[in-house]
Amino acid sequence: MLDNLKEQYKEIQNPKGYLTSCFLMCDFKDINNEKWQFNFYNNDKITSYKDNKIIEKDAEVHKKKGEKLKELDLEEIKITPKEAINKAKEEIKVGEPNKIIIVIQNKIYNITFLTNAMRLINIKLLASDNTIIETKEENLLNLQSQ
């Protein structure tokens, strides 16, 4: 799956700026067939590519003034998305995943599951060694009453 991510990245022709994050959102059952979105930072704007096409151009960046987004070097990602997903899935205590969102940024996998038990589970893992650095869980039914 990491090779697939890198192959999709290499297909992008002449992006402006540098890669800052990768994004994937899909039904959990379709995870192996989905295309990644690649986000490039240039002059305080983000341009997003998916399937070698621009899907969003010059989007505003939400960051502190003077802050620059860090470059994401895919060669520094040592853990495959599949390994990160499997480790993160171990944190699901109730239900099975229906949807998944994955963001790779700042050498961290940020994985969010929506389960069939109406739970939203977010896990952050180091992309270097698959160490879990944060886990959050919310019952979606509780969010309605807030």
Task: Note the run of SSEs as H and E.
Answer: HEEEEHEEEEH
- Domain count: the total is 1
Looking at the structure, what is the overall shape? Answer: globular
Order of strands in the sheet with most strands: 4-3-2-1-5-6-7-8
Oligomer: single chain
> Roughly how much helix do the residues carry, as a percent range?
10-25%
- Unreliably modeled segments: none
SS-based class: alpha+beta
Give the rounded overall mean pLDDT: 91
Q: Cα distance, first to last residue?
A: 38 Å
Total strands? 8
Roughly how many Å is the radius of gyration?
16 Å
Structural notes for this entry:
The chain is α+β, with helices and mostly antiparallel strands. The protein has one domain (2-144). 16% of the residues lie in helices and 43% in strands. The protein has three helices and eight strands; from the N terminus they run αββββαββββα. It has helices at residues 2-10, 81-89, 140-144, and strands at 18-27, 37-42, 45-50, 53-60, 97-105, 108-115, 119-126, 132-139. It has an eight-stranded antiparallel beta sheet with strand order 4-3-2-1-5-6-7-8. Strand 3 and strand 4 (53-60) form a beta hairpin. The radius of gyration is 16 Å and the shape is globular. The model has no long low-confidence stretch (mean pLDDT 91).
